[in-house]
Amino acid sequence: MNVFFCSLVESYTASDIRRKRFLVLIGGALLVCTALAVALFLPELIDWTRSYRPATLLLASGHSPYEIKSFTNPPWVLIPLIPIALLPSRIGGGVLFVVSLCALVFAAIRMGATPLSLIAFIVSFPVFFMLLFGQIDWLVLIGILMPPPVGLFFVLAKPQAGIAIAVFWLVEALRKGGLRQALAEFAPVTLAFGLSIAVFGFWFLDTPPGMVTAKYNFSVWPLSIPIGMVFLVSALRGRKKELSILASPFLSPYVAPHS
Predict the structure, then answer these.
(1) pLDDT digit string (tens) for 240-254?
(2) Whole-structure pTM value
């Protein structure tokens, strides 16, 4: 009887493993097909081909990414993009589309999305805009799920989308461990920021002219500041990180549709 039971358990386990492997293979094949379809049939991902890819290639070759005037993000955001940028432009755009989509789905599920809300999120205008333009706001959502010392590198990839989260983490660190913990958690990103200035100069001051007044700037700053402060203060008082996520776009003078 024990032999039969053990055999049945092993058979079920093997069957379960084969099913999981099959699902992984199917999922992988769908992602590859999606990347190829994006590369072959969709228009170029403009922000990827004209900004992030050339900036990444410059960084990888030892040059300043800020030779690309439209690139204004911290330089470290380009490091995870290097493998994608080394691919042909269209193929890399397809891969970026799939990586972005997977990151968004993962982050949404980790934040408690139901199947219905996940679908609504993926087909929403900001997400659709981000995917089709080859933007990197997905890094901010991934960063929210990380411990602050690492997550700060990601949420500050787009300050207009993540600066309030950094403020929330700073206040939380002060509450939990005082100045010592705050310094420990913010030291890595502060050091990286200082190093970026030493290598590339004051890159964050070189904002393209007309950026704030551009037609694609959705910000209504400074009128939106009170709304952002309400979200931020509510987040700090209730110690709810989710509310701080909502604050950043209202506190920034520049917010593109995908942010």
Answers:
(1) 888 888 888 888 887
(2) 0.82
